[in-house]
Write a structure and sequence with these properties.
By secondary structure, this protein is an alpha+beta fold. About 50% of the residues lie in helices and about 15% in strands. This is Integral membrane protein.
Length: about 200
């Protein structure tokens, strides 16, 4: 009758085994430390990366303010792409707006085709009074923060794991070299017969 063997234990490298080499224990420790460092380091760096992105998003929101601009010309109505003939859903047109100090500025903004001269638009300006794109929405900002944190954490974890793999390969290479040296000494004895 066959004896039942239990499933392999994750700690099998730590048990006493007459065939266990010192390099096996070193490899197991490297594996354990690489995973622990990857998880801890990845988490820490991910949190820092997410916080940095959150700060950048908040700085962008704080630096942009809405301005009320007036269209200085009627926007072209029939604008088409020269390559494929499709209509543009936005065109550039001249606008005029006043900054917080009352200084008038002229520029060009993206508007819907056919928008009439004199139409009031809400645009966004930076601290120097230049037109800029609208700030990132709360939802997009949260998404960017989460993706940045997860990406930085994953990359850091992979770097630790790759470093652990390189270290384990080096230990394995040294063990193989030692085994080859021992075989060179003992191998010839295997061919001898008792006489």
């Amino acid at each position: 009758m066959r004896k039942f063997r239990g499933a392999r234990s994750p700690g099998r490298r730590w048990r006493h085994n007459p065939l266990r080499r010192r390099s096996d224990v070193v490899e197991a420790w490297i594996f354990l430390l690489a995973w622990a460092a990857g998880l801890a380091g990845g988490t820490a760096v991910g949190v820092v990366g997410a916080q940095a992105m959150d700060d950048a998003v908040e700085r962008q929101r704080a630096a942009r303010r809405p301005v009320h601009a007036v269209l200085s010309e009627t926007a072209p109505a029939g604008a088409r792409d020269g390559d494929n003939g499709s209509r543009f859903d936005h065109v550039r047109a001249a606008v005029r707006w006043a900054d917080g100090d009352g200084i008038l500025h002229d520029g060009r903004a993206s508007v819907r085709p056919g928008t009439r001269k004199g139409t009031t638009l809400t645009l966004w300006a930076d601290a120097h009074g230049r037109l800029v794109s609208a700030p990132i929405s709360r939802t997009d900002g949260t998404t960017r923060v989460m993706v940045t944190g997860a990406g930085v954490a994953s990359t850091t974890c992979l770097v630790f794991l790759a470093g652990g793999r390189v270290a384990r390969l080096r230990v394995e290479q040294q063990a193989t070299e030692r085994w080859g040296q021992e075989w060179d000494q003992l191998g010839p004895q295997w061919g001898r017969t008792a006489g």
